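Changelog excerpt

This revision adds worked examples to the README so contributors can see how folded entries look when concatenated. The first example is reproduced verbatim below.
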Amino acid sequence: MSRIALATYRPRGDQPVDRDLPLLVEELRHSGADAVAVPWDDADVDWADFDLAVVRSTWDYSWRREEFLEWAARCAAATRLANPVDVLRWNTDKRYLGDLAAAGVPTVPTAYVAPGDAPALPADRPYVIKPTAGAGARYAARYTPAEQAVALRQLARMHEEGLTAMVQPYVDGIDVTGERAVLFYGGSFLHSIRKGAVLSPGVAFDTRKTAHPSLEPWQPTEAELAVAERALATVPGGAERLLYARVDLVDGADGRPCVMELELVEPNLFLSAVHPGSVGAVAAAIVKAAA
């Protein structure tokens, strides 16, 4: 019997709860595995006791990136870790979007403003500012050129905290066709969802947002699947090393899908909310990886 740990976190206050965890643990146990959900930062856990540790919902990692990566390295030294630690290191810094763009993958154009850099904000279009290490729309906000003073205050606050900012044009297509997430598990397409726009005009960057509004099932187009597969092909060491992946897509200025984010760390799988029928496939892929 394989022992499997699903790495999660301890929600505090109004932080989201991973409602997929009980479904996965139950299905894994039904499949014959000894599965438990474990906070990634629990100092009492001996990760060598497990045949496989799966990063599932470590949703506080973005404010603790170095600590998280140190844990991932220790965990990977003790047991098999999915996804691999070098992939986690690459994917926890959204400057990986530059690697995708350099490889010819359609991506949302992105500029980076590190602490000490002189900010250059768009003067002719709405834009978004968010951190290179972030999740769940944390510290993300949408601005117009007339709101530059407010945007500069956000940059100053982020730089005080040592965060590098990314600046992207606001993709108008999100307001029309939404954002699509294409998910893969065990090397195969799992399912897809569509959600509405996360960022609303005038909402402050440090206000908690609804990360996945207006969720609904989605059947990806051939073009969306093709872009998602091109994005996965850029992963260091090859996509075949991944247990799971989520590719977030929006329609670019040309109306074609482009990558907003490639999520290889702790993607919401939308099982309980949209795709409960996928629980079995996810559990089967995890059991296979632990064998």
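The second example, added in the same revision:
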Amino acid sequence: MTRTPDFLTTTRTFYDAVAEDYATHFPDDLAGRPLERALLTAYADLVGDTGPVADLGCGPGRITAHLASLGLPVFGLDLSEGMLAVARRENPGVRFEQGSMLELDIPDGELAGVVSWYSSIHVPVDRLPALLAEFHRVLAPGGHLLLAFQVGDEPRLIDQPWGHPVTLDFQRRRPEHVAELLVSAGFALRHRAVREPDDSDTLNASVPQAFLTARKPLSETRK
């Protein structure tokens, strides 16, 4: 009997296959997106120079590099060695590592910031609490988390992109549900925003895009 690959294996295989085509077809993830650039600038101001920042699920490293240009001491982490090869080639001055954001090789309280920019969208809903708990663990008290994801109730299936024999579900979430999970994980929600659909956004399709910023409290009150 053949064992069905888990979502981590499926995600890694998908992005290893499409990495070079992705880099060619989407050369600038922030081009024509002034609202997203403003959110990232505000996030950089929140974090400041308080410590290292991890861009988890960094893909080709465009957001990582943008955060570095804003003065943050940021590094990127991704499952896909194919995507990391692109990231390292395009951003030689930025550090990139291979790993899973569900099992981070980072000490407790090490980070001032965690960014998950459209990277939680491949995590099944039943694993989201564990993911947010891991983000909470590695953040220092007062550290900030930034999440970006597509809004919706049904996943979008990407099947054989650019002719590659791979498929992957892109999960869509409701901001109110993710906000509840953040609070349950011990975060304090700082900001939420939803950008309405934009038919010029070929990368994220014509659906609303959600952005949540949360903070790990300076003192824990959870039992």
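Reviewer comment on example two: The longest strand covers residues 139-150. The helical segments are 7-25, 34-47, 62-69, 81-90, 128-138, 175-184.
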